[in-house]
Structure formats: C-alpha cells, structure tokens
C-alpha cells in the first residue's frame, strides 16, 4: 500500500477508472485531446483579447480571467492525470498532493467568482447601459479580479492544514487521478467533523452564494428585458447573455452532480464517482472556449485575424 508511518503516509496512490485499468492506455488519447482543446482554446482567447484593441472591454477582460482560470485548472491536474493513464505512475508525495488539492479547489472557486463577476457585467450592460463605462472601469475590473483571487486563497488556505492534522492510517489509495479534499479526508482514522463542516461552509458560502447571486442577476435582467417594447431588441439583449448562461451551466451542473453523488450516492459504483469528478474538472475548460468562439462573433473575428497574420 505504499510507504507508511503510523499517522501519515509519505505518499498516496492515485487511481484511474476502477474496472477499466486495462483500458487506461486507450483512455490516454481522449484525455490528451481534451487537454489540448482546453489549453489551446483558452490560450487562443487570451491572445485574441491581448492583441485586439476592439476586445479591450469589460466583457472580454472577464472572459480572459475565465480562460486563465481554465488554463490553470488544466495545468493543475495534467501532471498526475497523464502520469496515471499514460505511464501507470500512480504515486504522489503527501505534500505534493496537498499542493495539488489546494490549487484545484482554488482555481475552481476562482472560476465561480469570475462567472459571478460576468453576470454583474451583463446586468449593468442590459439594465443600466448608460452607466456601463463609468461603473466598470479598468480599476474596478482589476479590483474584482483581485478580490476573486484573494477570496479563493484566504478561504481555502486552512484546507491543507486541516488534512495534515488528521492521522491517515486506513489506506493511502485515493479514488481519483488527482487529489481532492473530500477524497483525502475519508482516509483518516479519526473524527473528520471539522473537515466536513468547513468543507460544507466553503461550498455554501462561496459556490452556493455565487450561484444565488447569478440567478438573482438574471431575474433582474429578464425583468429589464421584458420592459423593452421591441421583440427584436429583447432578443438582441438576451443573445448577449447566451454564452455566459452556457458557461454557468457547464460549470455548475457537473459541480452539483458531483456534490449530489458524494453526499447521497454512497452506494453508487466507484466508477460513477470518478466519472462525475472527471466531468466536473474537464468539461468547463474544454467547453468555455468553444462556447465563446461559437457564440461571440467578435472573438471569432479576432481569432481569424490572428491566424491570417500568422499566414502572412
């Protein structure tokens, strides 16, 4: 089971997909494609916003933050996932596991905060367009980005220490090909009430509140849009929100699915837990650049201009 102390393993063993161990080399191909799409697509958006002066606007600055968090999330999971599936190298040092756990949860929380900031952007753009330029200045946008980052760091800073204080002597085998807080605390042979309560507090006070405020912002947006007389103008206003709504669904639907399976699906097969967690981590970074490229013509034009410059 790995190298052990009485209270703490020196390393953990990561797991691919239970029951499909013989197919891991085949699964490595699709995983590499997903990483390439996530890293390539989000890097393209970051470059398009950086190079195109027409995209130097609040909506696209927030989109850049979203792309950055997606790239960071992909980079946080890539080393252990590819080692597990490609090389069958399943061992990860205890401290490295804590660092990866912190990074995964931090970037996930950052993404939630950025989606909330983007909903505020859409609310101001539709409900109070005359004040848009004065409310969302570069300084305010930078401040919102810093606040989202600081919230993630401060809120999740205790997690590694909460894990370190636990004696882990049941097993050192994790359920995934990366390190997550719920997965690690279940290996403890001590009372994990503090970890459970703090984890639930973080989930409700950040992700839960973000989702509530996103929902409220769209209630206000719909109320404002319904007051517009022209049907064409209503559709045009709502169309500017489609990309953001799809990004919110791509992030929160898998997350709610994972939380539901973890809380209430204790008797579900292990591969269900693993697949749901993988969907939660891989789907948003892959889908977000595709959604914004498909639904936002300004992004498409900027990307086409970038490629045409390269050809020239």
TrEMBL record:
<keyword id="KW-0807">Transducer</keyword>
<feature type="transmembrane region" description="Helical">
    <location>
        <begin position="140"/>
        <end position="163"/>
    </location>
</feature>
<keyword id="KW-1003">Cell membrane</keyword>
<keyword id="KW-1133">Transmembrane helix</keyword>
<keyword id="KW-0472">Membrane</keyword>
<dbReference type="InterPro" id="IPR000276">
    <property type="entry name" value="GPCR_Rhodpsn"/>
</dbReference>
<keyword id="KW-0297">G-protein coupled receptor</keyword>
<feature type="transmembrane region" description="Helical">
    <location>
        <begin position="60"/>
        <end position="82"/>
    </location>
</feature>
<keyword id="KW-0716">Sensory transduction</keyword>
<feature type="domain" description="G-protein coupled receptors family 1 profile">
    <location>
        <begin position="41"/>
        <end position="292"/>
    </location>
</feature>
<keyword id="KW-0812">Transmembrane</keyword>
<protein>
    <recommendedName>
        <fullName>Olfactory receptor</fullName>
    </recommendedName>
</protein>
<dbReference type="InterPro" id="IPR050402">
    <property type="entry name" value="OR51/52/56-like"/>
</dbReference>
<dbReference type="GO" id="GO:0004984">
    <property type="term" value="F:olfactory receptor activity"/>
</dbReference>
<feature type="transmembrane region" description="Helical">
    <location>
        <begin position="241"/>
        <end position="259"/>
    </location>
</feature>
<feature type="transmembrane region" description="Helical">
    <location>
        <begin position="211"/>
        <end position="229"/>
    </location>
</feature>
<feature type="transmembrane region" description="Helical">
    <location>
        <begin position="26"/>
        <end position="48"/>
    </location>
</feature>
<dbReference type="GO" id="GO:0004930">
    <property type="term" value="F:G protein-coupled receptor activity"/>
</dbReference>
<feature type="transmembrane region" description="Helical">
    <location>
        <begin position="271"/>
        <end position="291"/>
    </location>
</feature>
<dbReference type="Pfam" id="PF13853">
    <property type="entry name" value="7tm_4"/>
</dbReference>
<dbReference type="GO" id="GO:0071396">
    <property type="term" value="P:cellular response to lipid"/>
</dbReference>
<dbReference type="InterPro" id="IPR017452">
    <property type="entry name" value="GPCR_Rhodpsn_7TM"/>
</dbReference>
<comment type="similarity">
    <text>Belongs to the G-protein coupled receptor 1 family.</text>
</comment>
<keyword id="KW-0675">Receptor</keyword>
<dbReference type="InterPro" id="IPR000725">
    <property type="entry name" value="Olfact_rcpt"/>
</dbReference>
<feature type="transmembrane region" description="Helical">
    <location>
        <begin position="94"/>
        <end position="120"/>
    </location>
</feature>
<dbReference type="GO" id="GO:0005886">
    <property type="term" value="C:plasma membrane"/>
</dbReference>
<keyword id="KW-0552">Olfaction</keyword>
């Amino acid at each position: 089971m790995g190298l052990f102390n009485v209270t703490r393993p020196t390393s953990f063993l990561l797991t691919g997909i239970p029951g499909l161990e013989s197919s891991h080399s085949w699964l490595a191909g699709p995983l590499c494609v997903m990483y390439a799409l996530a890293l390539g697509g989000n890097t393209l958006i970051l470059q398009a916003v950086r190079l195109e002066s027409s995209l130097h606007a609040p909506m696209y600055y927030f989109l850049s933050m979203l792309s950055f968090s997606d790239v960071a999330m992909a980079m946080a999971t890539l080393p252990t996932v590819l080692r597990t599936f490609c090389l069958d190298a399943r061992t990860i040092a205890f401290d490295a596991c804590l660092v990866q756990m912190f990074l995964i949860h931090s970037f996930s929380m950052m993404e939630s905060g950025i989606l909330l900031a983007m909903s505020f952007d859409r609310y101001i753009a539709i409900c109070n367009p005359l004040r848009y330029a004065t409310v969302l200045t570069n300084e305010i946008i930078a401040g919102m980005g810093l606040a989202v980052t600081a919230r993630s760091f401060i809120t999740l800073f205790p997690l590694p220490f909460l894990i370190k204080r636990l004696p882990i002597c049941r097993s050192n085998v994790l359920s995934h090909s990366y390190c997550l807080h719920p997965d690690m605390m279940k290996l403890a042979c001590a009372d994990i009430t503090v970890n459970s309560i703090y984890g639930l507090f973080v989930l409700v006070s950040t992700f839960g509140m973000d989702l509530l405020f996103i929902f409220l912002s769209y209630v206000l947006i719909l109320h404002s849009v319904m007051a517009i007389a022209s049907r064409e103008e209503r559709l045009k206003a709502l169309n500017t929100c489609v990309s953001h709504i799809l990004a919110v669904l791509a992030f929160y639907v898998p997350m709610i699915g994972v939380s539901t399976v973890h809380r209430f699906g204790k008797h579900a097969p292990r591969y269900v837990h693993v697949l749901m967690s993988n969907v939660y981590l891989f789907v948003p970074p892959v889908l977000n650049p595709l959604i914004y490229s498909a639904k936002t013509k300004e992004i498409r034009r900027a990307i086409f201009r970038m490629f045409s410059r390269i050809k020239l």
